[in-house]
Structure to design on (846 residues):
């Protein structure tokens, strides 16, 4: 049908379209998709990859289970200026923590290392709804860890004011979904304050960090499962950071608290308890604005952040060792005994400003790219990255850039699990991109 | 009762040289919050539909920049029994929701109004279906009062097609033609309520909008934006602050510099009401309706009530207040027990017929739960509906994959 299109096409395009219809690879234009071949993989995932057999998040290879691995985290910088052997020369300690404990640890470190640091938000002095500030009031007092009214706009504005005069404000928005009342304050005031005052404000030492849990948990519905990071993409002046694990969370949060720019730290809420790692107990930071390569590879680069990284890892593992039921869906080339494709997994970490050059470099290395995130496709991070990579690495690309994301619907209450990118969707996109 | 000890207007508490503008409240008198301190004036009539007068406790109301409502309420025996029946049904329904949540048949978020029944039932007895109500996420009882059904609410909570939003809204999003819903975002419904009142004024209707919010939401900036607009344009809007003493886990005293929420309107007059006594709620709502529909502009009405449970299902409700406090409210100030005492003490009916009402309410709710359980989950095609107004959709909406793209047939 493509060859009968009314608009004359160049021979090069015609051959490409023909090739595509032979391979059966999908194209993004829905108007064409309607006439394309039926799904190669049924929308319902095969039984052995769903339900009870699915490995839990906590068992993922992404999480670092030993002190050695934890201390070898790329970019780790200890505040005392010493290396891995520590000030005593006898090495550094780590402790098993889940993500909310790592956040709690970082907040405690921030409060004890800076007398101007304050932690505030809705119900934080009772420990917060996700327990990220447990015991902080007892430890640092009511003046430094306090509850605010239910005033998101106020929390942001209040934090901006405090930071403007040199304070270290660490605010919490209880759910990322509630950040929209504060949107004006964050985008119009926080992001633009420095520019608008010609560098006069915030005063030296001032920093604003706003933490908020994001992402779906399976039953949060419209107002408790959204991923709002995409909305902040255009806010020049504002940083948005999304950690993937306890080690990353502590390091990135401490870096954010000490960064003079206003920073939003969005924490994937499903990881609060599920993700457990050996976390260095000393005060350390991880660099903001840099990507992290979770897994090296040479055939395809997956770029993602937050919870979907775990999904990607499982999809990669499926491709390394495909179960018999998936074999029929794999082209000959990707099936054993042929060697499994080598997939690279990159954690973008910083959503605004996007570390585009570093991502482009990785894509140039592998020639293929798949982006995965939980937020809907439109107005999201994926299309922004894909656009930039398409422009800058056009000649290096072997296949269209793949994007697996949430739907362009509200996060549904009853079918939330279908909203999240699942392992089969990622797997399918990998196969499609690899066999283009 | 330390939590309730601070109900006197702040203007009176702190004599900082700012003179209270005009208040009818003597300096040391507290709003009383008992549910059973009203007394009938004279003998009750024998007919159950003949109105008689009841005198509320003298401290059932406080006011700001206006006179307090009269403490004399007109009521009939039938109305008293009807109120009792509705309150018992509402409590049963909320308890059923609690149980269903714990059975994991209700997922997501669920906020119960156990203890606050006098608000919804009392308000409903004073207004009609031409009046409009909009409230926060704690909306189940109001949804039923405003023309919904128990089954419709329970099914909605369970995400079933028989739910009042066809299973697409859940606990916080239930609507009827005269009820503009629960709203998940704290305070966001208040300006919307002002807008509804603007429509009523524009259409020259003698009706009122009750824009309800909690003590927690009182600190939202947009509430004040709504106040300003409503007073500027003299809208028939009653800003109804349901003060249950705790905004989630933070008490009003810890979150608000002025806990006399009825004085928060600046130029807008306000009344504070003992909302544990359903007769006081009824009288206050009649007063508020009369005030707003007679062209005097908006009114702030603070209904002082108490929630027995936690803020939501994940909050046990005991980390920020003592068990004794909750227990004391339950045993001494319960609105249902208060009304029951009126009915029995005044000889409206006997204990046996109240027991029969209790039993019938339980059966009705049980039946509604069973019916709701039989209802199906929404069809997957419902994913694509209601994103845009029917008939105005774009040609297609994208799903996850090309095969799931939905085309709208116009």
């Amino acid at each position: 049908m493509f060859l009968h299109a009314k608009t004359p096409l160049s021979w090069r395009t015609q051959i490409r379209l023909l090739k595509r219809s032979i391979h059966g690879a999908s194209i993004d234009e829905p108007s064409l998709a309607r006439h394309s071949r039926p799904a190669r993989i049924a929308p319902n995932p095969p039984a052995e990859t769903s339900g009870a057999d699915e490995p839990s998040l906590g068992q993922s290879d992404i999480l670092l289970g030993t002190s050695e691995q934890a201390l070898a985290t790329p970019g780790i910088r200890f505040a005392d200026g010493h290396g891995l052997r520590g000030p005593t020369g006898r090495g550094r300690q780590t402790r098993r923590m889940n993500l909310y404990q790592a956040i709690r640890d970082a907040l405690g470190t921030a409060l004890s290392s800076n007398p101007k640091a304050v932690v505030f938000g809705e119900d934080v002095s009772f420990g917060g709804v996700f327990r990220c500030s447990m015991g902080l009031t007892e430890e640092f007092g009511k003046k430094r860890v306090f509850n605010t009214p239910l005033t998101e706009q106020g929390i942001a504005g209040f934090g901006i004011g405090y930071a403007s005069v040199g304070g270290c404000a660490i605010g919490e928005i209880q759910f990322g979904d509630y950040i929209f009342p504060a949107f004006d304050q964050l985008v119009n005031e926080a992001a633009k304050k420095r520019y608008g005052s010609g560098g006069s404000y915030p005063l030296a030492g001032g920093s604003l960090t706003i933490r908020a849990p994001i992402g779906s948990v399976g039953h949060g519905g419209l107002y408790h499962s959204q991923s709002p990071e995409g909305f902040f993409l255009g806010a020049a002046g504002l940083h948005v950071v999304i950690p993937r694990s306890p080690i990353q969370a502590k390091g990135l949060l401490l870096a954010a608290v000490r960064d003079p720019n206003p920073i939003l730290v969005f924490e994937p809420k499903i990881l609060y308890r599920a993700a457990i790692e050996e976390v260095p107990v000393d005060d350390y930071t991880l660099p903001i604005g840099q990507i992290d390569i979770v897994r090296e590879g040479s055939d395809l680069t997956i770029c993602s952040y937050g919870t979907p990284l775990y999904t990607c890892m499982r999809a990669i593992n499926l491709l390394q060792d495909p179960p018999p039921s998936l074999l029929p869906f794999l082209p000959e080339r990707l099936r054993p005994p042929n060697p499994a494709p080598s997939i690279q997994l990159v954690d973008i970490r910083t959503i605004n400003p996007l570390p585009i050059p570093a991502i482009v470099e990785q894509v140039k290395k592998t020639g293929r790219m798949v982006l995965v995130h939980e937020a809907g496709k439109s107005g999201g991070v994926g299309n922004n990255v894909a656009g930039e990579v398409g422009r800058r690495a056009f000649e290096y690309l072997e296949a269209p850039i793949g994007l697996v994301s949430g739907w362009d619907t509200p996060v549904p209450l009853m079918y939330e699990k279908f909203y999240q990118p699942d392992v089969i969707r990622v797997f399918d996109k990998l196969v499609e991109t690899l066999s283009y | 009762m330390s939590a309730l000890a601070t109900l006197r207007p702040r203007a009176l508490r702190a004599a900082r040289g700012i003179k209270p503008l005009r208040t009818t409240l003597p300096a040391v008198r507290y709003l009383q919050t008992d549910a059973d301190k009203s007394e009938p004036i004279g003998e009750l009539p024998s007919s159950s539909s003949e109105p008689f007068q009841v005198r509320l406790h003298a401290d059932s109301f406080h006011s700001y920049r206006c006179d307090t409502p009269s403490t004399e309420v007109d009521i009939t025996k039938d109305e008293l029994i009807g109120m009792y029946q509705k309150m018992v049904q509402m409590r049963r329904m909320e308890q059923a929701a609690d149980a269903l949540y714990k059975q994991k048949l209700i997922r997501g978020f669920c906020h119960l109004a156990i203890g606050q029944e006098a608000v919804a039932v009392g308000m409903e007895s004073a207004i009609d279906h031409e009046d409009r109500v909009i409230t926060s996420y704690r909306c189940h009882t109001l949804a039923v009062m405003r023309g919904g059904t128990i089954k419709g609410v329970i099914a909605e909570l369970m995400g079933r097609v028989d739910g009042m939003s066809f299973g697409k809204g859940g606990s916080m999003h239930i609507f009827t033609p005269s009820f503009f819903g629960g709203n998940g975002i704290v305070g966001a419904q208040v300006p919307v309520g002002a807008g509804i009142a603007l429509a009523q004024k524009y259409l020259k209707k003698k009706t009122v909008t009750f824009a309800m919010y909690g003590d927690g939401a009182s600190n939202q900036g947009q509430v004040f934006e709504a106040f300003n607009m409503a007073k500027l344009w003299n809208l028939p809007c009653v800003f109804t602050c349901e003060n249950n003493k705790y905004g989630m886990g933070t008490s009003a005293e810890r979150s608000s510099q002025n806990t006399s929420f009825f004085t928060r309107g600046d130029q807008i007059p306000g009344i504070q009401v003992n909302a544990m006594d359903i007769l006081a709620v009824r009288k206050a709502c009649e007063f508020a309706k009369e005030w707003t529909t007679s062209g005097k502009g908006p009114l702030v009405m603070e209904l002082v009530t108490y929630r027995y449970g936690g803020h939501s299902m994940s909050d046990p409700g005991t980390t920020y207040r003592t068990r004794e406090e909750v227990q004391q409210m339950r045993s001494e100030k319960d609105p249902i027990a208060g009304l029951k005492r009126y009915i029995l003490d005044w000889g409206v009916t006997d204990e046996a017929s109240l027991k029969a009402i209790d039993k019938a309410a339980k059966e009705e709710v049980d039946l509604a739960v069973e019916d709701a359980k039989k209802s199906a989950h929404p069809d997957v095609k419902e994913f694509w509906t209601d994103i845009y107004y029917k008939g105005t959709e774009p040609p297609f909406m994208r799903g996850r994959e090309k095969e799931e793209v939905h085309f709208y047939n116009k």
Remarks:
- Residues 20-315+333-378 of chain B form a domain with the Rossmann fold fold (CATH 3.40.50.970).
- Residues 1-6, 8-15 of chain B have pLDDT under 50 and may be disordered.
